[in-house]
Write a structure and sequence with these properties.
The chain is of the alpha+beta class. The protein has three domains: 58 residues, Arc Repressor Mutant, subunit A, CATH 1.10.10; 172 residues, Heat Shock Protein 90, CATH 3.30.565; 84 residues, Transcription Regulator spoIIAA. Helices cover 43% and strands 19% of the residues. Helix 6 packs across helix 7 and helix 12 packs across helix 13.
Length: 336
């Protein structure tokens, strides 16, 4: 069967994704998925090998990967914009403008955090690029982001600091920073993770993020920022900003994935809800995403939807991806 050019391109892209995911049956899976022969799939592989997209590793094909690493001594004079322009931008020449603008924003924001907040001696930047994805990691050997937030705000735990990061508008330098960098970068990247003090902040599935780091050692000291985005992404940075802004462009909305905070899928207590609603009144609208939450306790729901809402009727709280059990409890406390 002969495929159109569009279908061939789709088959090749699918094949590369299967290889990247570590699926050893990538040839058969691609053949089955597109109704073509294994011989046709192998011809695609030979073409891509000739073009430097894949290479042989033993009996298997792997994606060719270009890697570059840069090391900097952190000083107050170190500038994130200069690092991006001088060292990083030259490795991204073939990407579309929408992707380049995202990378410039994300790298600049994360480097600025490391320079201004980490109290580190050294910053390491790694750029890795395959045909499918670009990955940029930033490591500093400083105090650790979660510990810095915990100590600055006198939170009771690192987990509380992570909860606050999910909300956004969080900074340890209010005079010079808005607290928006991690919030927006974490949402615009395909894969984003912050590793520090044995903890992970991410909007992605945690096991997927750990797998994406390719077994690299998670630091025992300091902070590792991991960012990955498709080289074919259609995302537009302005659209991400606008999703959380009012008509005047202010950062007024936030969205919180509750399953990334309550890993057992069952928040039950008022104390958990009080910790969650801290700083909710900094926003006009809060989306609580219940995807992956099995159920909620009456005290947890009552504290948010009754107690907090009576004190702050100006804050709109919306609930998304609720299952039947969660929906019944929310209905119960709102109609009791």
């Amino acid at each position: 069967m002969s495929l159109s050019k569009e279908k061939r391109d789709a088959a090749k892209y699918y094949l590369l994704e299967q290889i990247m995911s570590g699926n050893a049956s990538y040839v058969q899976k691609t053949a089955d998925n597109f109704g073509i022969t294994r011989a046709a799939v192998y011809s695609y592989l030979r073409d891509m090998e000739k073009n430097g997209i894949v290479k042989k590793s033993g009996k298997q094909y792997v994606l060719n990967e270009e890697n570059h690493e840069f090391s900097y001594i952190r000083t107050d004079e170190l500038e994130e914009s200069e690092i991006y322009v001088k060292d990083i931008q030259k490795f991204l020449p073939d990407l579309d403008d929408n992707i380049l603008s995202i990378w410039e924003y994300a790298v600049s924001e994360m480097l600025n955090n490391a320079i201004d907040h980490s109290m580190a001696d050294q910053i390491l930047v790694t750029v890795s690029k395959t045909y499918l994805y670009t990955t940029i990691s930033i490591y500093d050997n400083g105090i650790g982001i979660f510990k810095k937030i915990k100590e600055y705000y006198h939170y009771d735990s690192l987990d509380t600091a992570i909860i606050e990061l999910f909300k956004g508008k969080l900074t340890t330098d209010t005079e010079h920073h808005s607290g928006e960098g991690i919030f927006f970068t974490s949402r615009v990247m395909d894969v984003f993770g912050v590793f520090s003090d044995g903890k992970l902040f991410s909007h992605n599935n945690y096991s997927d993020v750990v797998k994406s780091v390719n077994g690299d050692m998670v630091p025992s000291k300091g902070t590792l920022i991991f960012m990955r985005m498709s080289n074919f992404s259609k995302k537009v940075l302005r659209e991400i900003f606008d999703a959380y802004a009012d008509v005047d462009g202010g950062f007024t909305k936030t969205s919180i994935p509750l399953s990334h905070i309550y890993h057992n899928g069952y928040p039950i207590s008022r104390s958990q809800a009080k910790r969650l609603t801290h700083r909710f009144d900094d926003f006009e609208e809060i989306e609580l995403n219940y995807q992956g939450i099995k159920d909620v306790g009456q005290g947890f729901a009552h504290e948010i939807y009754v107690v907090f809402q009576k004190k702050h009727p100006e804050v709109k709280i919306t609930s998304t991806n609720t299952n039947e059990s969660v929906g019944k409890m929310l209905h119960h406390v709102l109609n009791a």
